Amino acid sequence: MAQVIAGILEGLEPFCSNSVRPCAWPLAANLPLYQRPQIVAAKSDVANYGAFGFQDTDWTRVGFTR
Predict the structure, then answer these.
(1) What pLDDT, on the 0 to 100 scale, is given for residue 54?
(2) pLDDT for 15-65, tens place per residue?
(3) Of 45, 50, 22, nearest to 5 (Cα)?
(4) What is the 3-state secondary structure (H, E, C) of the chain?
(5) C-alpha to C-alpha distance for 47 and 60, rounded to whole angstroms
């Protein structure tokens, strides 16, 4: 993985200065490579709420059942 990141950073070399390059290493560790399992607890009368994964929560669709 370090070789892949190094290759990407070498490709960005004309656009980056040496002061920007060290800042890229902490960010590279936060790239999501796979979806992790997510466990969410909610009351039984809540609808459309749960583990959303990579998608954003559409709060207009979350609500309560009758």
Answers:
(1) 76
(2) 555 666 666 667 666 666 777 778 888 888 999 888 887 788 889 989 999
(3) 22
(4) CHHHHHHHHHHCHHHCCCCCHHHHHHHHCCCCCCCCCCCCCCCCCEECCCCCCCCCCCCCCCEECC
(5) 11
Residue pointed to by tokens 């609500």: 63
Task: Please give the single-letter amino acid code of residue 37.
Answer: P
Please provide the size of the chain in residues. 66
- Report CA-CA distances (Å) from 35 to 29, 48, 53, 54: 15, 20, 6, 7
Q: Are strands 46-47 and 63-64 parallel, antiparallel or unpaired?
A: antiparallel
In sequence order, which ranges of the chain are alpha helices (DSSP H)? 2-11, 21-28
